[in-house]
Amino acid sequence: SVESWFKLKIVVEKSTVPVRTAEAIEKILCHNTNSKGIKYQILSNPEFLSEGTAIQDFLNPDRVLIGGSQCPEGLEAIQKLKAIYAHWVPEDRMITTNLWSAELSKLADNAFLAQRISSINAIKNTKIGPKFLNASVGFGGSCFQKDILNLVYICDSNGLTEVANYWKQVIKVNDYQKSRFVKRVVTSMFNTVSGKKIAILGFAFKKHTSDTRKTPAIDVCKGLLGDNTCLSIYDPCVTEEQIQKDLSMDVSVVGDAYEATKDAHGICILTEWDEFKNIDYQSVYDNMHKPAFVFDGRNILNVDKLREIGFIVYSIGRPLEQWLKNMPQQA
């Protein structure tokens, strides 16, 4: 009836949250002494947006997931939310399910994405990438690790120890990839970077964002600083204040790639900003100490061209040149 719907409120949960959060929200709202007889239906409508393309993803989603109670009121609430999306989203892109499945689906989605990244970082060849996956120094951002640990907790809570251990390993492989990259830098540069200047190009966890949460650059920079290297960091979007805060120490943050690389012994590419592909690397090489090293942690540079200029190049997922093959204690 009209009266019953007047007293029914629909609350839509959008964030990626632990499973059963919607149930907790419902209990809190329904036990509110000021609710005045209002009833609530909680819907789970997790977003599948990516930083840097969020508006485009929202306007043209590949799917919209709506979960709710399977009682008559819950099913009707689902239909009302579907009707809002129907103004711009085709019917066949809208998926409806129960609350548990909707909340779990977002965790599983991020976990699978993270697992794919860890897999390609462990095994990279021309058959697998770059059409499907790209090797890199590791994944970052606010979601992947958090959501995997959430999934680990669910598995552990339900006695699925082996499954939980599998997802833990995804994080371990990601951490290994970052430490392996640092070891490669150190061993390639005669087993020490102490007192040497290394240019860090890119600090955000991916391009088109200033977000540095869980960015691989933090662990790489701290690993190099642990060997007393001198870092010169440039990112087109991340502020100096944020970089200093993330590293918990004063480091040199500069305004462009050429300033960062001047008089440097090596360069580490840690974010796949497009501008790093278009740098005048001949000019950069001329202003660096020799031998000049490039460690491409995002696999975005033309390795052959850099080697023709004179750089010693390490690019994740690509064959090593003879110099690096002959270095002892390889990472």
Automatic annotation (TrEMBL):
It catalyses: UDP-alpha-D-glucose + 2 NAD(+) + H2O = UDP-alpha-D-glucuronate + 2 NADH + 3 H(+). It holds the Pfam family UDPG_MGDP_dh. Keywords: NAD, Oxidoreductase. Pathway: Nucleotide-sugar biosynthesis; UDP-alpha-D-glucuronate biosynthesis; UDP-alpha-D-glucuronate from UDP-alpha-D-glucose: step 1/1. GO terms for biological process: glycosaminoglycan biosynthetic process; polysaccharide biosynthetic process; UDP-glucuronate biosynthetic process. InterPro entries: 6-PGluconate_DH-like_C_sf, NAD(P)-bd_dom_sf, UDP-Glc/GDP-Man, UDP-Glc/GDP-Man_DH_C, UDP-Glc/GDP-Man_DH_C_sf, UDP-Glc/GDP-Man_DH_dimer, UDP-Glc/GDP-Man_DH_N, UDPglc_DH_bac. This is UDP-glucose 6-dehydrogenase.
